[in-house]
Structure formats: structure tokens, C-alpha cells
Amino acid sequence: MKQLILLGFFFLSIVGCKNNADKNESASKSYSQDDGLITIKGDFIFIDNAAVLKTTNDIYGVVVDNQMKALEKQVKPYKIANTDMVPVTVRVRKFEKPDDEEGWPYRVEIKEIIKVEKPEEDTNDVIKLGN
Fold first, then answer.
1. CA distances to 53, 72, 118, 123 from 80, in Å
2. How confident is the model at residue 26 (pLDDT cuts 50, 70, 90)?
3. Residue 31 contacts by C-beta under 8 Å, 6 or more apart in sequence?
4. Tens digits of residue pLDDT in 106-118
5. Do 39 and 31 contact (CB within 8 A), yes or no?
6. Given its phi and psi angles, is residue 17 left (phi above 0), alpha (psi -120 to 50 degrees) or beta?
């Protein structure tokens, strides 16, 4: 009887570990898949039909499509002024811009929106002119 109970606990612990492994895999799946997409965390802005994603090291032009417009809808509640940039984490397809167009050397096409965050209120990098 003791062995049967011990065997039952052993079986339950194995099944429990397998479920946790599946949950951890699906949680990190968006960040690192072998599908040619990259995960970028940066500040997003969309003004006058032009979108930009600024990271600590690079600036990317963003392809304006339905996925970008969905991101803009998620970002809008965090913006106070139209020129506010909002921190986002997205999975993108990165590619070089055409030679005959102006802009940053690389563009990104948003494939998945992972996270939209509230901007820090301590940023003093904006100068506003007015009376």
C-alpha cells in the first residue's frame, strides 16, 4: 500500500513538472523563435502617417500596416502629447530600406505586439515653447 501511494505521488509530480515546462515554454516562445523575426524593445511614435521605433542604439522606420495601427491604438492611452514616445516590445521582421528612398538604413515590419508600457514621467528631454 505504501508503495502504491509513493508511486501515485511520483506520477503526480512528473505530470505537474511537465505542465510547468509547457507553460514556461509558451511564455518565452514569443521572445525567441527560429522564424527569422527579432524582438525589439524601444520607444514607438506615429505622427502624420510615419512611424518610428527608437532603441538605445538604433532608429528604425516602421512599415505602416494593420499591425502597426493596432500598436498605435494600444499606445494612444499612454500619450499626453501627440509627440510622446511610448515604450513597447515587439517582434519584427527587419530589412534594409530601398536605396531610392530617404530615411533610416533599416525598416521593421511589426509581426507581434508583446508589451506596451507606460512611459516614465521623469524624462526631462522635451522642451516645450509657449507663453
1. 18, 14, 11, 13
2. very low
3. 39, 91, 114
4. 999 999 999 999 9
5. yes
6. alpha
